[in-house]
Amino acid sequence: MIRRKWFLEVGLIALLIMVTSVVCGFAEERYAVKSGDTLHDIAKAFGISVEDLKAANQLERHLIKPNQVLVIRTAVEKEKTHAVNKAAKEGDPYIVKSGDTLSGLSARTGVSVEEIKQLNHLQSHRLQIGQKLFFKNPVSSLEDEEEMGDGDQEVEVPTANGGEEPRASESLEKWTNSEERNLFVRVAKTFLGVPYRWGGATMRGIDCSAFVKKVYEIFGVALPRTAREQSCVGRPIGKDELEEGDLVFFQTQRARRTHVGIYIGNGEFVHASSWNKEVKVDHLDKPYFHQRFLRGVRVREVSSES
User: Fold this and answer.
1) Of the residues 40, 62, 121, 259, which is catalytic?
2) pLDDT at 27 over 50
3) What is the DSSP annotation of 47-89?
4) How many helices (H) and strands (E) does the chain have?
5) Are 193 and 279 in contact (CB under 8 A)?
6) Does residue 185 surpass a pLDDT of 60?
7) Active site (annotated) includes residue 208
8) Which of 4, 49, 82, 287 has its CA 20 to 30 A from that of 213?
9) Catalytic-role residue among 24, 208, 232, 290
10) Contacts (Cβ under 8 Å, ≥6 apart) of 110
């Protein structure tokens, strides 16, 4: 009777372990170390990384002994390895998962820990679940229309080096006062996090020129729909002349296409980014935007009384 009860308890424990493994999204295997085995050989045979193998078995060193039983976690680790490799190869962001470490990600991708920290502006080795990491410079790996799509991708726009220059309006409306302009910036920021959608013009999905048009509509200014047309409204200004509320335009690598955002001060602008899939704040000094800055455009003039 006692023996039967013991078998039932062991069976229940085994079943619980199996169910837990399935719920958590991984399948655990056991491997008995053979003479001559190394962690590298075992990891390679199961398609996982040495760091994952060490983590699953709480190993601090590479030393293993014959007949030692190792836990092999396969399903989640293979999926995680695929995601990491895809991010490293294509320049996509990788979403940090439970158990990830900089050293482990470095071992998988071949990118040094210091490079990962530099690419992602990390000050420490600490990672947070859900955090986005890049393993290569996204500028070199992304098509510009993916990074900065717009509702008028196929339309040519004037460039800074030649061609038609934007028309300057004969007279610009003025901000009522500085507080109105500050309110404009605050309203633009309320769109942060709104999903990006190519050709979209609602809070369920919006592209860059529609975002600019919608914010200005709230303040009684009717702008054209496309970025090209918006670049021809108002007065062209240089980067050193930018004030809150001015439009900023960037030329993409694909010739004669453009992207637009709203300058909000301190070198920052808010825009609908197809790369980040949402409305967000970026800085003009970021290499990508610094190299591709086309011009600023003032839609509403700064009042001398403001």
Assistant:
1) 259
2) yes
3) T--HHHHHHHTT-SSS---TT-EEEEE-HHHHHHHHHHHHHHH
4) 12, 14
5) yes
6) yes
7) yes
8) 287
9) 208
10) 88
b/e per residue, 274-285, with b = 16+ CB within 10 A? Answer: bbeebbbebebe
Q: How many CA atoms lie within 13 A of 247 on its CB side?
A: 31
Average pLDDT of the segment spanning 218-231: 91
For residue 32, give the 3-state DSSP assignment: strand
CA distance 212 to 226: 10
174 in helix, strand or coil? strand
Residue 306 or 181, more confident: 181
Mean pLDDT over each residue of the chain, to the nearest integer: 76
Q: Measured between alpha carbons, how far is 53 from 25 in angstroms, rounded to an integer?
A: 17
- SS in 3 state form for 254-298? CCCCEEEEEEEECCEEEEEECCCCEEEEEECCCHHHHHHEEEEEE
The pLDDT tens digits for 124-172 are 888 888 787 777 654 443 333 333 444 444 333 333 334 344 444 445 7
Measured over the CA atoms of residue 185, residue 190, residue 192 and residue 197, the dihedral's sign is: negative
Give catalytic status of residue 259 as yes or no. Answer: yes
Of 84 and 238, the one with more pLDDT = 238
The Cα-based distances of 67 to 33, 37, 43, 56 in angstroms read 5, 10, 17, 17
SS3 206: strand
Q: Is residue 271 annotated as part of the catalytic site, yes or no?
A: yes
Q: Which residues partner with 250 through β-bridges?
A: 259, 293
CA dihedral 156, 161, 163, 169 (to 10 degrees): 90
Q: Is 3 helix (H, G, I), strand (E, B) or coil?
A: helix
Question: Which pLDDT band holds residue 180 (cuts at 50, 70, 90)?
Answer: very high
Q: 24: Cβ–Cβ under 8 A, 6 or more apart, which residues?
A: 76
Q: Which of 121, 271, 283, 290 is catalytic?
A: 271
